[in-house]
């Protein structure tokens, strides 16, 4: 285990994700300066149910986009992995920011080919309904669930469930279950909208032949 600076936020960050942040609190401005001077990383554990979550995502500072006269900053970061927080400290020694004793978590990235095919089929339907089909073209050839998770309408709790999953196959199961539940609702909503649009219009209908 090792000590890691922590920056709790009301969101879930996935490994590989790039995250832009506006830093304004003095404690986190200090954290950014320490990242620059000492090359340290920091964790973002989701703040849920009025508490810091047990799992968090380790982040690497990529660069400072802008520094304001007030000392506030716009920074670019990249998520590198998931950690489990064994002990949480509201303040690290001689620092303004929080920290914790953390353990690195291993991840099995092996995909289930059948689940991947089913997920893609559902995603094509979902993005067609939402008018976002072009997003599929932007996915990397070997995309992971983490690459699409923020674009599936998942709740924060569901996203945290993905973070808890120790294998890619388990994450695929979670996403597939979600898509199978929401797609019928969305498709029915689209059919309802179409009926509303047609109501009152002249209809060109073919009568039954009997």
Structure in a nutshell:
It is built from six helices and eight strands, in the order E-E-H-E-E-E-E-E-E-H-H-H-H-H.
How would you summarize the topology of this molecule?
Blueprint: E1 2-6, E2 18-23, H1 26-38, E3 42-44, E4 47-48, E5 51-52, E6 55-67, E7 73-89, E8 98-104, H2 113-130, H3 134-137, H4 145-148, H5 156-164, H6 168-198
Parallel strand pairs: 1-3
Antiparallel strand pairs: 1-8, 2-7, 3-6, 4-5, 6-7, 7-8
Helix pairs in contact: 2-6
Task: Give an overview of the whole structure.
It is a single chain. The chain has helices spanning 26-38, 113-130, 134-137, 145-148, 156-164, 168-198; strands at 2-6, 18-23, 42-44, 47-48, 51-52, 55-67, 73-89, 98-104. The protein is an alpha+beta fold and 210 residues long. It has two domains: 2-104, Roll (Archaeosine Trna-guanine Transglycosylase, Chain: A, domain 4), CATH 2.30.130.40; 113-198, no CATH class. The strands form two sheets. A five-stranded mixed barrel has the order 1-3-6-7-8. A two-stranded antiparallel sheet has the order 4-5. α2 (113-130) packs parallel to α6 (168-198). The chain is elongated.
CATH superfamily of the largest domain: LON domain-like
Low-confidence runs of at least 5 consecutive residues: 200-205
Strand-residue fraction? 25-35%
Count up the domains. 2
> What is the CATH topology assignment of the largest domain?
Archaeosine Trna-guanine Transglycosylase, Chain: A, domain 4
Shape summary: elongated
Protein name: Lon N-terminal domain-containing protein
Organism: Hymenobacter psychrotolerans DSM 18569
Domain Lon N-terminal: 3-181
